Amino acid sequence: MQERFQRYVNEQHLIPQGATVLLAVSGGRDSVCMVHLVRRAGIPFAIAHCNFHLRPGDCDRDQRFVSDLAARIGVPFHTVDFDTRSFAASHSMSIEEAARHLRYSWFARLCAERGYACLATAHHRDDSIETFFLNLFRGAGLSGLHGILPSREVAEWRNDDVAEPGSSATFTIVRPMLCFSRADIDACIEANHLDYVDDYTNGELDARRNRIRLQLMPLLRELYPAVDSTMEANLSHLRDAGLLLDAYVSSLRGVLVQPFAARVPSPTLRLEAVGLEALRSVLDAFRQSPSTQRTLLFELLRPYGFNAAQTAEVHAALAAPHAGARWLSATHSAVLDRDRLLLAPVAAPEPPHVECCATSAVDSSLPGVGRTTVFVDADLAGNCTLRPWQPADRICSFGMGGRQRLVSDVLKDMKLSIVEKEHVYVLCAADGRIVWLVGLRADERFRIGPETKNIVRFAVTV
User: Fold this and answer.
1) 359 and 311 assigned to the same domain
2) Domain range for residue 377?
3) Would you state the pLDDT for residue 171?
């Protein structure tokens, strides 16, 4: 078993040579077996244990057991206590979701602060097969049918109860036990007389995973005695197919998705654009199979958090685009904007930084405004304030002969997208009149002229 372990770690490139790995250890047989194998392989490691306080008495027992294990073998030990039920209630999460969020936030912080190369969990082959069936019945798509991956880069975990507000960390999760079945681990525990603690919740039928483990899998093994090895091969094929699809979609994304310069100054607005004509051209290669088109579009949009139902709506909209059609995921907004699909992170608009300074007289023939700078009569403007634009706002643009127009009409004429309009701010004079549609238009009523005595310069930076 030790030889298989080391061969698997090397073949999958899970742990860099000489690096220290952080082991997530619950105290159960799987994680205790992992500690045993990692230690015998001579890999430097530390142990981390989470106490979720969900099982009265047992959680504290597990914590003491893992602490004693780390002390006995002489490796660094990290532990943390979570009020999981309270966190789940305050964040509208299930207990399982809250526990997952809490532990991975903490693991990410440990890896970042202590310099651990990666986090190792003790997921094994049976866990991966169970995950396949869970995702199959949830309709997770191809990306969910490869089971548990040997390694995975976690881009970001945030949790204000664990890390500093707004902080983030990137770390790698590795699963060096995926080459073993639960029976393999049991045999290792028995052969090496390893102590461990039992989690009685693993035998309960209140979780879908446990039902798959205790009811579905025994039935499948009765019907198909080789189901475990067959599923292992199937998962490997699905992982390979997923890698090929990812490579293809990634190359397409690199061509189709391009940065798009926002036409309004905003510190929070970052846009990407997909040209509809180019997108249709790619999808047209699969015109005989609309479902394949939807799958490809789903894979293109998946990193932005959009689900299959939303992707189907986007696909249907491509036939007759309606400017302003919008879809929201947990992280991004997608907006049809004429001949393109705009993608933007969901972020609360923040005011641009506007600098104000008095200046000497300038040529009165100047129109008074550029993209980032405006000169106005300081005596007419008074003390100015910055705020988001409102539907009733009006502005008297240069060249309009003193006629006022609704700001909403001005923005429409400028062909700004919905998401850009949400980030538009106005600079208002002391009497409430608009001095500057920031970064876009200045109001003629505050222009400098021959009688102007005091001039103020406003400049916007993002």
Assistant:
1) no
2) 353-461
3) 83
- Are residues 214 and 266 both part of a single domain? no
Q: What is the pLDDT of residue 365?
A: 42
Residue 426 DSSP SS3: strand
186 and 301 part of one domain: no
Is there a domain that residue 27 lies in?
Answer: yes
| Residue 427, domain member (yes or no) | yes
Model pTM score: 0.69
Hey, what are 297's tokens?
């579009």
Does a structural domain hold residue 240?
A: no
Query: What's the number of CA atoms in the CB half-sphere (13 Å) around residue 440?
Result: 29
- Side chain identity, residue 451: E
Q: Count CA within 13 A, CB hemisphere, residue 305.
A: 12
Torsion sign, CA atoms 440, 445, 450, 453? negative
Distance CA 425, CA 402 (A): 22
3-state secondary structure of 1: coil
Pairing type for strands 425-428 and 434-437 reads antiparallel
Q: Mean pLDDT per segment of 10 residues, for the chain of length 462 residues?
A: 92 91 95 96 96 89 95 96 92 87 91 92 93 84 80 64 47 93 94 87 64 92 94 90 89 94 91 94 91 92 90 92 88 92 91 87 47 87 93 86 89 93 94 93 89 90 73
Whether residues 368 and 341 share a domain: the answer is no
Q: What CATH number did the domain enclosing 340 receive?
A: 3.30.465
The answer to whether residues 25 and 83 belong to one domain is yes
Do 38 and 182 reside in the same domain of the chain? yes
pLDDT at residue 280, as a whole number: 93
Residues 78, 12, 197: CA angle, nearest 5 degrees: 35
CA atoms within 13 A on the CB side of 132: 23
